[in-house]
Write a structure and sequence with these properties.
The chain has about 230 residues and is α/β, with parallel strands linked by helices. It is built from seven helices and ten strands. Helix 3 packs across helix 4 and helix 3 runs parallel beside helix 5.
Length: about 230
């Protein structure tokens, strides 16, 4: 029996930047089991990116709790939360968030360096991932020398470098053509199967949704449906 690795319990998030408070999430309860491959979908403004940020500890809910691998991250201090994310969660952002002055190998190895992984082991892991994403020939290229699709693949490799338990990806295929998007999803599905990494995607992209084994739909900050499916 699979264990619950993420438990977002009765999450609500209210933003008060304007005269009228915005209820981004309303009493959302979602649990994700270890090794799942899940798409979080819904129209713009439905709350899917907000929920993803809560699950990754990038933002805190107004009420409710997020428990990851039996650790209630909503109660951690900022320093402990940073350390927890570093060792347990990989992030893929729509805007890539690569460091402009670093090469592909340096961007991918950055998290490993923060974790004090020995140089030899770091190099081996980076090369393994560059081969996995088909960018061995771009090892010394900086982000500005790569296409959008190549930058996104480097961003995914960076998220996977430390072999996290969980990868959270916000619109991972938004900047990719169909061939690149399908290759990227196939790579992540392979790593999901072989390394049992839990993947959760926030997406509008039908190419991502059809490859998910579970689809959670948010509408107006609430869970509208939660269904299992056979990936295509």
């Amino acid at each position: 029996m699979a264990r619950t690795i993420i438990d977002a319990h009765k999450i609500s998030k209210i933003y008060n930047q304007t005269m009228v408070p915005v209820k981004a999430l309303q009493d959302v309860h979602v649990h994700i089991e270890e090794g799942e491959f899940v798409a979080l979908v819904g129209p713009s403004g439905s709350g899917k990116s907000t929920l993803l940020n809560m699950m990754g500890g990038l933002d805190k809910p107004t009420s409710g709790s997020v428990i990851i691998d039996d650790v209630e991250i909503t109660k951690l201090s900022e320093n402990k939360l940073i350390d927890f994310r570093l060792h347990n969660i990989g992030f893929v952002f729509q805007s890539f968030n690569l460091i402009p002055v670093l090469t592909s190998k340096e961007n991918i190895g950055f998290v490993l360096q923060l974790q004090n992984v020995p140089k030899k082991e770091r190099k081996e892991r980076v090369m393994e991932l560059l081969k996995e994403i088909g960018l061995e020939d771009k090892i010394d290229n900086k982000p500005g020398e790569l296409s959008g699709g190549q930058q996104q693949r480097v961003a995914v490799a960076r998220a996977l470098a430390s072999k996290p338990q969980i990868v959270l990806a916000d619109e991972p295929t938004a900047n990719l053509d169909s061939k690149s998007a399908n290759k990227l999803m196939d790579t992540m599905a392979k790593l999901n199967r072989e390394e049992n990494i839990t993947f959760l995607f926030s997406t509008h992209d039908a190419r991502v949704i059809k490859k998910a084994r579970r689809v959670i739909t948010l509408v107006d900050g609430r869970v509208d449906s939660d269904v299992q499916q056979t990936p295509i």
